[in-house]
Amino acid sequence: MSYQVLARKYRPRSFEQLVGQEHVVQALANALTQGRLHHAYLFTGTRGVGKTTVSRILAKSLNCTGPDGAGGITARPCGACDACRDIDVGRFVDYVELDAASNRGVEEITLLLDQAVYKPVVGRFKVYMIDEVHMLSNTAFNAMLKTLEEPPEYLKFVLATTDPQKVPPTVLSRCLQFNLRPMAPQTVQEHLAHVLSDEGIAAEPGALRLLSRAARGSMRDALSLTDQAVAFGAGSLSEAGVRQMLGAVDRGHVVRIVEALAASDGAALVETADALRGLGLSAAGTLEELADLLQQMAVLQAVPGALDSSDPDVAAASRLAGLLPADETQLVYSMALHGRAELALAPDEYSGLVMVLLRMLAFRPPRGGDEVVAPARGSSQAALAAPVAVAAPRPAPARQQPAMPAVAAAAPAARVKPSVQEPPPWEEVPFESEDPQPPAGVAAAPTEPARPVLSRTDLGDRWNDVVERMVKQGLIGALVRELAMQAQCVAASDEGATAVWRLRVERETLRAAAQRDKLQAALAQISGRAVRLEVEAGPAEDSPALRAAAERERRQREAEQIIHNDPLVQALMSQYKTARIVPGSIKPH
Fold it and tell me: Which of 3, 210, 333, 539 fits as disulfide partner to 294, beta carbons 3.0 to 4.6 Å?
């Protein structure tokens, strides 16, 4: 007899055997028991969480006749009648499974729906199960809408998808939707232990923990990995063997990383990364294991005793939780997550790993006191020898944008006090100065460059009208439209039958030949004559973009003036001395 893989052999055949989806089981079991049956069900969830399995169990519940052949609709199919056995092996004529990934056209759906007019051949209900339904074409969805909304009383639809966002709302509104959740690692581990016990296969708890985490919530993936691990371990599962098969990083490596971060030991971090390279372990797997450890540490810091003490990994996490402050744990955790996405951009993944670890060290929050000493310029050796400390920003006066201070070039070592929370906006705080000066030894924050002043010209009026006409007629778009909006017309003349336009554009990317040629073609089309377009470099003083900005500012000022002049607003501001109009809250229609 041929070997049957674990994922198929241990597929649940009843609601009682279904693991990790209690919320779906309860709803369906109650509906079957009370006879409140919907005509269309939609099961959503990631791969391997039981969508097809639930569909088959539901089909058996609807068509089960019991061992004696006299049974009815039930939430506990017997598994012994002809209908239950045939559905389990996939030969029940009234249960049809359609894979929408390979049958996504309107012809396949129409052929399926044409059979819906015929009553069941042997069963009580016809059940149409469409897997990966989101891959159907729009015409296929439209073809099934009417039947999906008002099917014959003997027909039930079961739809399954891993991406419900791609299912049209018209289909969603016709279905009873159930979201099957990814399973917790502990749930997967317990089920694997039960399966391996029935199979008579010895397994170490650490091996099961690795497999349950690697499955990422998918029971099918967990059973497939277990099959692979049994073959790899020649009939047994050891933690070392499973770790080698998965390429997983031993928890001891990431423990040393956290200890090095706590001790500010950059050399130990680099040595650990080199050791991982020598062992051929994955850099992405290292950051994943590090993030898992930091997550456990954060939980223990916030809620001591919240994790299962029987898990051997919790002991190390509990010890390390006291080495890092809670805010630093959160910061390092965030860097580990973002660092995994950056590994593909690095010259090689190990150099990327080293940079992520050094970044965790460089951006550690300052510790040890209320004041941070910022070294003066020229103290390069001291700066290289000591970790970098980031000073907190000075509290800015009320109603002003806070700015990060910069240490002046010739200033000696300055002591920067920790930041103070800014008072809430409803508390009135007097202005220290209308034009506050920066404190001694601190350079003023750079100001934004002044916006170009609009200087209207007759040629600007003419060019603005031409651009509006091209935009309305859809002759220009994307970068060509941006070129026209940012350009100032400095000359327009005729040379025989050819119209010559000269534009001034500041941005070099907009002056590219491709954009210029497309704009020249649009001008020729709208004017009905040959056009030659010349583009020169320089700042624009009268462009459609500047005119549009000026118009927005004018409308904004008018709207603000209307609010300020409103009698009710004036009465409220006179009654409440601390009342004010929040800047930016007024929007013109």
Answer: 333
Burial label for 464, CB within 10 Å (0-12, 13-18, 19+), is buried
Nearest to 291 by CA among 315, 244, 257: 257
Yes or no: domain 251-362 corresponds to CATH 1.20.272.10? yes
In terms of C-beta density within 10 A (0-12 exposed, 13-18 middle, 19 or more buried), how is residue 162 classed?
A: middle
Tell how strand 95-99 and strand 40-44 pair up. Answer: unpaired
Architecture per CATH, domain 453-589, reads as 2-Layer Sandwich (3.30)
Strand pairing of 414-416 and 372-374? antiparallel
| Cα 42 from Cα 47, distance rounded (Å) | 15
Question: What sign does the dihedral 463-464-469-475 (CA atoms) show?
Answer: positive
Q: Report the distance separating Cα 304 and Cα 1, nearest Å.
A: 53
DSSP-derived 3-state class of residue 126: strand
Closest CA to 112 of 102, 98, 123: 98
Nearest to 180 by CA among 58, 53, 9: 53
Predicted pLDDT at 366:
64
The CATH number of the domain covering residues in 185-246 = 1.10.8.60
Q: Which residues contact residue 555 at a Cβ distance below 8 angstroms, ignoring those fewer than 6 apart?
A: 588
Identity of the residue numbered 382: A
State the greatest distance between any 2 C-alpha atoms of the chain, in Å, as a whole number: 100
C-alpha 441/C-alpha 303 separation (Å) is 44
What local confidence, expressed as pLDDT, does residue 577 receive? 78
Of 336, 361, 350, the residue nearest 266 (C-alpha):
361
Cα separation, 193 vs 233, in Å, equals: 16
Q: Would you call 243 exposed, middle or buried from its count of C-beta atoms within 10 A (0-12, 13-18, 19+)?
A: middle
Contacts of 304 (CB under 8 A, 6+ apart): none
CB 186 within 8 A of CB 212: yes
Q: At what angle do helices 544-565 and 567-575 cross, to 10 degrees?
A: 60
- Within the chain, which residues score under 50 in pLDDT? 369-420, 425-436, 438-449
**Where are the strands (E) in 359-486, listed by range?**
372-374, 406-407, 414-416, 442-443
* pTM passes above 0.85: no
β-pairing, 498-505 vs 488-495, is antiparallel
| Residue intervals in the chain for CATH 1.10.8.60 | 185-246
Beta bridge partners of 489: 503
**Cβ-contact 329, 301 below 8 angstroms:** yes
Judged by phi (left if over 0) then psi (alpha if -120 to 50, else beta), residue 388 lies in beta
What whole-number distance in Å separates Cα of residue 411 and Cα of residue 495?
64
